[in-house]
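Notes from hallway chat w/ T.B., transcribed later so I don't forget. T.B. wanted the structure written out for a chain they're using in a teaching module, and asked if we could keep both sequence and structure tokens in one place. Agreed to drop them here.
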Amino acid sequence: METTKKMSNLQLELLKVFSFDLEDHQIIEIRNLLANYFAEKATAEMDRLWEENQWNEKTIEEWSKEHMRTKYSF
């Protein structure tokens, strides 16, 4: 069974905006712009969570000692 995935609203918008050929260096610049945009969003969300949950260095230390592996039974 083959399933067709619908394009996201971002993909559709990018198709409209970039319906013309670009030079390779322009594509790289745009890829970097998008990567930086999403990296900034992820950083802002982590900062928000850090502040909201009052995480600190002790929290990170506790996380490093947690064992969250899936237990398998054979």
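Follow-up for T.B.: Helices lie at 9-17, 24-52, 57-65. Might be a good example for the class.
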